[in-house]
Design brief:
By secondary structure, the chain is α/β, with parallel strands linked by helices. Helix content is about 40%, strand content about 15%. It contains 12 helices and 13 strands. The radius of gyration is 20 Å and the shape is globular.
Amino acid sequence: MRIIVIGGVARSLIGFRGPLLRAMVELGHEVIACAPDAPPEIHARLTEIGVRYQHIPLARAGLNPLRDARTLMALRRLFLVERPDRVLAYTAKPVIYACLAARWAGTTPVHGMITGLGYAFGTDSRRQELVGRIVRALYRQALKRSAGVFFQNPDDRSLFDRLMLVPDEVPVTLINGSGVDLAWYQPKPLPPEPAFLLVARLITEKGVREYFESARQLKALYPKARFMLVGALDENPTSVKKDELDRWQVDGVIEYLGRLEDVRPAFTVARVYVLPSYREGTPRTTLEAMATGRPVITTDAPGCRETVVDGENGLLVPVKDVVALKNAMERFILEPELA
């Protein structure tokens, strides 16, 4: 069977889908992995596991009609040439344009995986609401004849049902996220000092500014506490800007570790993992943190709340609530036995 897997970021083909791709190959399938601009090391790692890489032009953020038309046409050509037996696409643009391209090409329908809703489903600005209306209309058209839709949490599924984005005849499956490799993420001893970590794209919706503000207040009270941040600046409209990130570091509040290919060393030096996200599919980083034996502070938001039993393996706080987040973090400083 020939299977095409399409993602919006090349590194995610290995970081998030590597075990899945490897399993497909081991079952005897021919696998083609598609994403924009894979760096040589990702290309090489895909080749190592027997997966063929195919570049597709795709701008992950924004709604530029000309760029998106190029994506749609490139996917149609890919489907016509390769004639896949199955197609799996994940994240918004790959799902939408792969579904539309498959209908246009008359090839096999696409399975879509909704891994989170992101910027397009926010309501913080008129621009965001406009983008949301466009994206919802595109989803509604794209999913009409999809082979099936995977959701990673019940809230996203309920929202798509309420907005009538998935027709009744399209199969829907609820899965518990993408999982993590427990042989790779193993429990490690907790450091003795209070040390907090956030791993995320540096965008508003991940709660990075709430994390900074909580860290700023706590650093004034507990100078020995550490507040680490891992992740890259992003092209998303709500991304933290470089000068803002620089100020956080100059102030001595945030230890910025950059974007890491391997986040395990960061988890090792952290005592508590923090993800103040506004909404997720199923956040992979909280699973990684728990696999390494770290308690988690996250939000009582779709996707996030599924990973934490409040008071058992972590704490839940309201979305966008700096006071509650700061108080939860402070509990782990004052009551180290909680970890």
